[in-house]
Amino acid sequence: MIKENRFSKYMLYAFGEIILVVIGILIALYLNKKQQDHTIQKQQENYLIQIKGEMANNLKSLSAEKEELSGTLDNAYKIINIMNNDSLIDNLTEPDLSRLIYAVLSEDIIFFNENGALNQIIYSGGLKEIRNDSISGLLASWEGKVNRVRSQEEQVAEATDYLKNYLIQYGDFRSFIDDMGFSKAIGIDLAKCKQGNKNLLRSKEFENYMFRFVAGGNPLQLDAYPKFEKEMQSLIKLINQALKGEK
Predict the structure, then answer these.
(1) What is the 8-class DSSP label of residue 238?
(2) pTM for this one?
(3) Where, by residue number, does the polypeptide cross the bilayer (predicted)?
(4) What pLDDT does 4 receive?
(5) Residue 88: pLDDT over 60
(6) Would the pLDDT of 1 be above 70?
(7) Alpha carbon distance 247, 233 (integer Å)
(8) How far apart are CA 243 and CA 247, in angstroms?
(9) What pLDDT, on the 0 to 100 scale, is given for residue 39?
(10) What is each CA distance from 194 to 89, 105, 185, in whole angstroms?
(11) Mean pLDDT (whole number) for 145-165
């Protein structure tokens, strides 16, 4: 009986030790998971802060490009309206015409898209650490949204190139650079004999290229840019909510 009593106490003690070991392991696993969750949470917050900063910069860049596009289109409309009125063509001075043409052709309509942090997050697999499905879904499709805008910008750039080439081939390019002050700036004497560029205003082909420019710029101004702007604003709003712990 004495031996059995000692054996029972020993088994009870051993069982207690096992329970303590198991509890210790469970606590260690719990603390380790808490630490991992905290690390992931901090990494997610860091990613979101970086992306938010990029999107804020992109909004500023897009706003500036929208303003430039608006001014460029306004001048394109002016040229088209002048082309439709012989009296306006006759009363327009060559320097004023050169300034209108320059206002249309001088701007490269392409907004600077800052995406270094976003690309690093995507290509490093960090996107899976962003647990907000709405945010991760938007980011996963972001390249497609940028490409949609770029495609429309390329149409405007192509139309601009056609206008530039037509001016060089059929216009008085020397008169144009004289009127804009470029000749003086690079030390070239002004041309003694000038034809001017009013002949362009009576060219159906030049008018077609101008309409092509407007046809590319309008969807960019009225649809692509505003839509992309709203998507960036929506992403920033979601990030702000996530950083505040809101759902």
Answers:
(1) H
(2) 0.81
(3) 12-31
(4) 52
(5) yes
(6) no
(7) 17
(8) 10
(9) 60
(10) 17, 21, 19
(11) 95
Total domain count for the chain? 1
Comparing 115-129, 150-164, 210-224, the range with the smallest average pLDDT is: 115-129
Q: Who's near 52: CB < 8 A, 6+ residues apart?
A: 236, 239, 240, 243
At which residue do the structure tokens 């300034």 appear?
99
Q: Record the tokens describing residue 239, joined without a space.
A: 């990030």
Tokens representing 123 are 């290509």
CA 229 to CA 218: how far, in whole Å? 16
- Which residue, among 167, 122, 173, has the nearest Cα to 144 in the 3D structure? 122
**What is the DSSP code (8-state) at residue 108?**
-
Task: Domain of residue 55: give its range.
Answer: 2-243
Sign of CA dihedral 92, 175, 187, 165: positive
Measured CA distances, 128 to 35, 39, 41, 239 (Å) = 18, 14, 12, 15
Tokens of 143: 């390249």
